[in-house]
Amino acid sequence: MGLILCSLVSHSQITRLYSRFTSLDKGENGTLSREDFQRIPELAINPLGDRIINAFFPEGEDQVNFRGFMRTLAHFRPIEDNEKSKDVNGPEPLNSRSNKLHFAFRLYDLDKDDKISRDELLQVLRMMVGVNISDEQLGSIADRTIQEADQDGDSAISFTEFVKVLEKVDVEQKMSIRFLH
Amino acid sequence: MKPSKACQRYRSVRRKPSQHYLYQESLLLSNLDDSFNADETGDSNDPEQIFQNIQFQKDLMANIRCRPWTMAQKLGALRRAKEIVLKFEGRLTRTRGYQAAGAELWRKFARLACNFMVMFIPWEMRIKKIESHFGSGVASYFIFLRWLFGINIVLTIMTAAFIVIPELIAGQPFGSTASKTIPKEHMASAQDLDTVWSLGGYLQYSVLFYGYYGRERRIGRAGYRLPLAYFLVGMAVFAYSFIILLKKMAKNSRNSLASASNENYTFCWRVFCAWDYLIGNPEAAESKTAAIVNSIRVSGVVTVCLRVVANILVLLSLAGSISLIYFVVDRSQRLEQSKKELTLWEKNEVSVVVSLVTMLAPSAFDLIAALEMYHPRTTLRFQLARVLVLYLGNLYSLIIALLDKVNSMSTEEAATKNNTSHWIDPTIFSATRMAPEEEKWSTPGPGIGLPRNSTWAPEEASVPAYTLPLSEANKTTVYTQRPQDQCWETYVGQEMLKLSIIDMLFTVASVLLIDFFRGLFVRYLSDYWCWDLESKFPEYGEFKIAENVLHLVYNQGMIWMGAFFSPCLPAFNVLKLIGLMYLRSWAVLTCNVPHQQVFRASRSNNFYLAMLLFMLFLCMLPTIFAIVRYKPSLNCGPFSGQEKMYDIVSETIEKDFPAWFGSVVGYVSSPVVILPAVLLLFMLVYYLQSIVRSLKLSNQQLRVQTQNASIAPSVLCHVCQPHGGAVWFFLPQGPGAPRVPRAQVPHNLSYRCLRGRSSSAGDRRENRSCSSVTQTKRTEDVRSEPLYRKDFQQMDRPLRGPGLPAVASRGPRSHAPRYYIINERDSHQKTHPTFWPEGHFRMDALEDLVEMCPRTTRQAVSRAPQQGPSPQLSEEEEGAPRREPVERSLHPQCLTGLQGAAHFYVGDRSESRTLAPEYQGRVHFKSWDDGFEAPLDRPVYGHRKPRSRNFQSAQHPPKLRGKPKVEPSLTESDSMSAASSSDQQNGGDDRCLQVTRSQAKFPRSVRQLGKRKAISRQELIADLSDLICSNV
């Protein structure tokens, strides 16, 4: 629990999340399945919902236990002021900016090759806009996107480039959930 | 920011290297040693050390399950840890435990208080709820509303505390003077609904309006200077609004990093940041999708003529609305002249028409905009601009019409004055004029028209020379039929308040009709209708964020415009905003769908505020103009009898301040001072402007530099990798002399070129390190070099931990042996061996460099070690000890096996790069995987490929911007070596990470693997904080 401990400070938070976990766990077998997640309305309507759900599951598994659940959620813990100063010599917590970004990156990186290719981008766009936009338009959008972000000319967005793109976005705030406790 | 952080960390670590060293040592000792040795106990006098040690042990206990040890080892380690804790905890003062517990308690309390405070933020939960349904765009409207509410509260407090309450408490009571009494002829109708409705009767003669306030210079026992206060508060309202607005804007722009706007990632942002993850409502999700579609849709067919037509239409409707308002005001004027009794409609005509125009015109614009077929974003922008112009036009035409009316009033007044002054001695004119006029005007007349004529008749007769002004006066005498009606300030205030009220009613009506009833209709009749109501024609009402915000801005503009004339307007606005908040939030939650064209309006967006500022400025102008231009009414209000309203200030200065102050103010306000002051201001503005420009420029240049810095190394490497000999041409920056011999080392090229570009400072150090190496000094010597001290300490000391045979056998792994092996290799290879160590040390030197120029050298630093001449060696020698030392104790054979591999590998690499490093990689990384990935629940990858994948992920950190570029450029023939180097880089990455961590130079580099593996101290420290809380 070391990692989790250092990311989720409060005991009551863990308790709280555990009760949330159990309430999501319809099968009552101590693990969550994809279906359990899909019952969450925010995820159900989110075009990227599947990706987010995927992020909870380790590769090749379709069950996630409480620990894995917590580990994923730990990415979303807000960065607190006192942490900013103290983690100068600490390890990087799961909720650091780059970890948050990496989490986001993985949502787009379907084949896990650490690159967002044009195809992956197209898929994401297709998910987001539905059928309202023609293929060639989506394609040109994907091209423009890659062209904007691409720095090394490999027609794909690597994590580095992704980070660069989102440099000005306050990910710390946007990718934060204030867990109740 | 990051580099500076890295620097900081580096420095902080340098400052107390011994601590860290000890830390690591204790870590090693605890795991490798069977007994507590002298070193530890010797140092344990320092409570800080003890504490850290204890924390570490506790951490170990907590994490022991995750360690890849056998159960016996775990038990042993656990026992040891417990012993240490038991042994040392007693030595520690209790206070630290209490401190930690107190800190935890305090944190809990702070959280609780934080949660508690949320309850006191008005509407916080409501806004959160809306946010969760409709996303942050809609919520931003409510946050803006709440912010306006806050401003209005302050304005209300200001006016109430300094004007209204003093007037109520100490001012002359109602009915005591003419200006505070309802004229007798109106007494009967004073309580009629329509009188009250049109703010006449009692309301007109109340603190609501300017006219009620007394003109006594001092009121009450304390001698409160009400007129002065009135004037100052009137100005303070504007001043406060300005200050608070500008402050907020400045804060926002600081937050929003708008400075970097020339880096455009519009598409990326739109794709990656499009979804609003707060949305939890299917309808909102739908419209969000539509909004995304809108935002990325490329604009359609351009139809110029239609656009021209549309613009003409918009201009026409703007002109129409403005002229309509002007006409209505004019008409009401004429009506008042011609009719004695006005109907309800006639009384409220002006405000109703203004509100109607405000409500309907935006929809008309919306329709017109459909003609234009712009891109939705452009459409929205046009729409906003037009609506803003419309609102401004409305307010302006209204205020101009009102001031026009005021103008005619004062013309009439002037006429009266002229008339009176003709037959009354000018010196006593003001006193005498008041008396007869009041007598005259306040005489009860059953029919107002007639007595008026009769009273005017003698004047006309007596002053035949003034026929012309008199005819004008005749025209306007309507307003002078009652003295209080001459109070144009009250009149303006009444109009503004009326407008505000009617605007509120219209808002309520529109919400109910357009949103609620339409929603009901669509919802419940949809099943029985011949077409789908929900998706075809009426649909549900949309929540148009931008237009609603504009409406708020307009509303606030009204308040600012009228606040001077009606001090209670802010108070009214507070109520209005509260009502609006509840109404709108209710409507949004029940019957609205969010607008499809979501205006990108985040909290840090200055768009709303800019509009508000614009509005404030434009609304201030007419008020200031009226204050400066017009003479205050003669017989009502705090400034009656004065030539100008602001005379009150000079009067106060004259009378209530010592003479010298008056003269000082006189000088200060004279052109002698004012002109230079204005000039000075201009110069200051210019100066600041130019500073801003230069800062922008330097900002830009810095950005370009950083970009270059990130690109350059990879470019150089592209060039130099395929044919190594060329490398040297890329190393010009340094003060080159001692480098010449190094050119003979061909296999080291990429590494070199990286290093070469790092900086001249690096070269300096490099030379230094070279010299130290060429003297073939042993580790001790090197250690004496302050630059490397820490590094070596960290490597050596733990390894030489007394009494552990395993460690001892690996003792040579510290720095000196590294050199050894290199030489060994050299002897195999015979490729200019002498320069290897140089390179090696150079690498170290480079790392030191980070401190000086972190930004530019970062990549070089991260890369150089990876491709360093002895990657393997350094990898295992620096990496291993820094990895969990325990691990080393577990897999000694891995490491010993490694040495051979490394050696083999290096030779290979330096020669032809053909030998697959798999063997080496396997052995080497296996230990890592076993040691770290497994316990961390990371999937254990196959060895080689996963490695390269890991490497990929290792590129992620933004700092290594240049790195990815290297990869694709490798030629096919190099692919093997690329793979190997990727392995190597990966290993190197980790190693490098660890090196830099141990030196704390590397800004905590983002690699996850590396990070996680890079364990030891850092993780410990972070965990410490938790343990402090949890265990003590």
Automatic annotation (TrEMBL), chain A:
Q: Does the keyword ATP-binding apply?
A: no
Pfam short name (any one): EF-hand_7
Q: Supply the SMART domains for this chain.
A: EFh
Compartment(s) of residence: Cell membrane; Cytoplasm; Nucleus
Q: What are the GO BP annotations of this UniProt entry?
A: negative regulation of calcineurin-NFAT signaling cascade; negative regulation of protein import into nucleus; positive regulation of phospholipid biosynthetic process; protein transport; regulation of intracellular pH
Show the CDD domains listed in the entry: EFh (cd00051)
Question: Residue limits of the EF-hand domain?
Answer: 12-47, 96-131, 137-172
PROSITE patterns reported in the protein's UniProt record: EF_HAND_1, EF_HAND_2
Source superkingdom: Eukaryota
Q: Which SUPFAM superfamilies match?
A: EF-hand
Instruction: Please tell me one Gene Ontology term that the record gives under cellular component.
Output: cytoplasm
- Transmembrane ranges? none
**Is Transferase one of the keywords UniProt gives this record?**
no
PANTHER family tied to this protein: EG:114D9.1 PROTEIN-RELATED (PTHR46002)
Family (UniProt): Belongs to the calcineurin regulatory subunit family. CHP subfamily.
What is the name listed in the Swiss-Prot or TrEMBL entry for this protein? Calcineurin like EF-hand protein 1
Organism in which the protein naturally occurs: Ursus americanus (American black bear)
Source gene? CHP1
TrEMBL record, chain B:
Instruction: Give start-end positions of Polar residues composition bias.
Output: 856-873
Instruction: Give the matching InterPro entries.
Output: TMC, TMC_dom
**Which parts form a coiled-coil structure per UniProt?**
none
- Mark out the compositionally biased spans (Low complexity): 973-983
Topological relation to the membrane, as annotated: Multi-pass membrane protein
Keyword Cell division on entry: no
One Pfam entry name: TMC
**Localization:** Membrane
Enumerate the spans annotated as TMC domain: 487-602
Check the UniProt entry and state the signal peptide residues, or none. Answer: none
Q: Where is this region: Disordered?
A: 756-783, 856-887, 939-992
Under the cellular component aspect of Gene Ontology, which terms does the record hold?
plasma membrane
Keywords associated with the record: Membrane, Transmembrane, Transmembrane helix
**Entry GO MF terms:** mechanosensitive monoatomic ion channel activity
Q: What is its main location?
A: membrane
Residue ranges spanning the membrane: these are 138-165, 196-214, 226-246, 308-329, 350-371, 383-403, 504-525, 557-575, 607-628, 664-688
Instruction: Tell me which PANTHER family the record gives.
Output: TRANSMEMBRANE CHANNEL-LIKE PROTEIN 3 (PTHR23302:SF35), TRANSMEMBRANE CHANNEL-RELATED (PTHR23302)
| Family assignment from sequence similarity | Belongs to the TMC family.
Protein name, please?
A: Transmembrane channel-like protein
* Protein source organism: Ursus americanus (American black bear)
The root-end lineage is: Eukaryota, Metazoa, Chordata, Craniata, Vertebrata
Provide the gene name from the record. Answer: TMC3
